[in-house]
């Protein structure tokens, strides 16, 4: 069974959704504003004859004409970073400010972490955490290539993350881009649908709940937590946020995002979720010709 | 403190902040902040105030990192800012990523390459280069999008410019 069959009644425009899921994704890069400007990066690509189109919702995201543009001079200089278009959303939702203390709880391989650093003007303290040494090495390599200097890299289980090593009381903002079943990446890697099992999903839910709970606990009152996944499964999305709304002191914030999104669902498979879950965001591939995504913004202790 | 990666008193498992000056030095052979700033100034003419917002740390034997955030000293983490400089060897060597990040502020020992020589440098190849400057580590730079942009670290000796771009950063790029 194709797991997407589960969403027949859930996704508006289901036929178009399925068709979009079968199309390959364009190759997209994000301009790294720590090292250059969007204008200069575009000038360098023009000089080299690399064809691209800016996306209509974010001027720092460029879609290449060719599906595999290889490398180029601006890439060599760390001016560009390959990043799936829709994965630029959670950092925008988190909206970190220069000088703040920010945690990326599941940071590797670092596309979103380096985007957070750029949004912070590479100031303040950004902590990038992951529990896997191999993935951490990719995170460090990417961060260094992009010239990020405000990042401390830690290796912990995010479910019981300790603030002690960095001697911090709390973070201003925490991003939880949780490990998930990755259904939304099927346009890039169709294998994810072949390997999908409900058992795998069930195993992930506990981890997702644990990480999001801990993230809320570590965030100062009035601070922001963003929960995101690249999957459509309500079990891994709204159900996880709903659980944490009950378990911890936080609420869903209605945040405008620059992409066309669909509201989060409030009932699924016989379960009902808090009404505020409609203010979370589902990104479907047929709406903006991107991958699939889910993004919820929470305010802590308010 | 354990001996870590071999330097006496230097614990290779943690990041230790560099002492401000040699009077503050407790770990033998550890570079000081003052020495690090002087080195970038002497070698490349990068003004010390460039690094006012940065702290410098040693982890491992002579590997210096620069970090812009706040951290306790010492700190046991996997990474702190970016690798910046190799000390505890006869000639200190800047890191490729640090030169790409801060090299735009350099006013000396910058070797400008154009066209094919720039592509060869990015591929990691050594090349004959006629240059009237100091031997030692230099910043290789080329014109990109209307301005001079640092590519990485070269070693200039005997009329030859050796590329030290690490394997993972080497690319086969067209002549601009």
UniProtKB/TrEMBL annotation, chain A:
Active site: residue positions: 230 (nucleophile)
InterPro entries from the UniProt entry: MeTrfase_RsmB-F_NOP2_cat (IPR049560), MeTrfase_RsmB-F_NOP2_dom (IPR001678), Nop2p (IPR011023), RCMT (IPR023267), SAM-dependent_MTases_sf (IPR029063)
Top-level class of the enzyme under EC nomenclature: transferase
EC number in record: 2.1.1.-
Keywords: Methyltransferase, RNA-binding, S-adenosyl-L-methionine, Transferase
Any one of the GO BP annotations: methylation
Pfam annotation, one family: Methyltr_RsmB-F
Keyword Transferase: yes
The SAM-dependent MTase RsmB/NOP-type domain, residue ranges: 17-301
Protein residues bound to S-adenosyl-L-methionine: 106-112, 130, 157, 177
Any GO molecular function: RNA binding
Annotated SUPFAM superfamilies: S-adenosyl-L-methionine-dependent methyltransferases (SSF53335)
Family: Belongs to the class I-like SAM-binding methyltransferase superfamily. RsmB/NOP family.
The protein's name in its UniProt record: RsmB/NOP family class I SAM-dependent RNA methyltransferase
Organism for this UniProt entry: Salinirubrum litoreum
UniProtKB/TrEMBL annotation, chain B:
InterPro entries in UniProt: DUF7122
Bias-annotated ranges (Basic and acidic residues): 22-31
Residue spans of biased composition, Gly residues class: 1-12
Stretches the record annotates as Disordered: 1-31
Chain ranges of the DUF7122 domain: 5-81
Protein's UniProt name: DUF7122 domain-containing protein
Species of the source: Salinirubrum litoreum
